[in-house]
Fold:
Amino acid sequence: MITYEPGLLHDLGGEGHILTVSEVTRKVKRLLEDEFAFCWVVGEISNLKEPSSGHLYFILKDSGAQLRAVCFRGSRPVLRFKPVDGLEVLCFGRITVYEPRGEYQIIVEYMEPRGIGALKMLFDKLREKLEKEGLFDTERKKALPVCPQRILIITSIAGAALRDILAILRRAPFPTEISIIPVKVQGDGASDEIVGAIYMANKLQTEKQWDLAIIGRGGGSIEDLWVFNEEKVVRALADMKIPTISAVGHEIDVTLSDLVADYRAPTPTAAAEWVVDQQEKVRAYLETYRLNLRLYIEDLMLRAQQTLDLLRERLKSPDQVLKEQGERINIWRERMLMAIRFRFDITRSNIGLLYSKLTSLRKIQEIPLIKQKLDYQRSLILKGISEVLKGYSEKCNKYLASFEALDPYRVLDRGYAIVTRVSDGRLVKGPEDVSKGEVLKIRVSKGEIFCIVL
Structure:
């Protein structure tokens, strides 16, 4: 209920001028919304709050005033950075009044960092945060392949960077398989596409087995390259399963993606050059190894040929071996005949001695005894001769068996053959020992065959 003094009400203009707080607030809200339907406001973020609802609440301030601000969850996907306290930003939105508290505020539809200085501060803060988490540590980086041949490229399909990379990779000395996942590299939705491409690459790695991934874009302003400083892109790149080269912008441009990647190339062109250089190093190493291996094999073959020639000189032909064995048999034969003659001479001498005794003594009664002794001597002589003949016979059989074993022509009876070249009489051991049109002699068990190599 509204109470008033009648006189005072009359003096102030009458009962029709009395307004409630809600009415005043609504009037002010309409005036503000009509006057500032949409506008740009620049200020520094302070007292930033991010509740579980997903909305952002903060204050925009400058040296002389402050303005409450809210960015609802539905507008956050258009933000290309993570707001932090102390960052100067440029906001686009509509001015309104929050009626329950009677406070005016700006509902932010779009926001971006104000100037390079603001981006640099945001860059430094995020870099410090991720560095403390260890995302830039050398220990967590994966080793790059020695000779990458299966390459994944994540970049814009319409950019000059892709054309430069492909032009250089065509010079690679080894066959190189290239896969491309096209993404936006600046503007709205670029960070989501890059994160999605990294997720897809990790999912397909088991099947594709890429050796290396190159991610990046060509040069541009710090705003153009900012997507590679966004936290979700950097964290996704840190979880990349494939050894990765970050190639963003020009040589002087350094992004957080460069710091978290396994290797930073100054430009996309330099990343492709690195791949080609690695393959060239491997090719040069293989060529050196091939030459060294060839020299080693040639030296090995030379030594083997020298050893073969030495063994060939020491190895006697079968005819020579048979000749030497025949000479030994003749020697043993002469020795055997000499032994037999010696035995006969001794026996003849003994018989003559006994006969002389028999004649001188003329003892007829001793004739049977002498005859018995003669028979005994005769049996001993025959036995001795038999044993000598048996021993020499066994030796002869042994040498004959050795001769037969050494005779190369005996194996011909079992179906084998000896092949020699008619031109020089050398044995043919394999196809490499003959040439087309050459005449060969084939020795078989029962004769010889002549043929021509076709």
Observations:
- Residues 268-314 form the longest helix (47 residues).
- The chain has four domains: 6-113, 142-281, 318-407, 413-452.
- The CA atoms of residues 218 and 249 lie 5 Å apart.
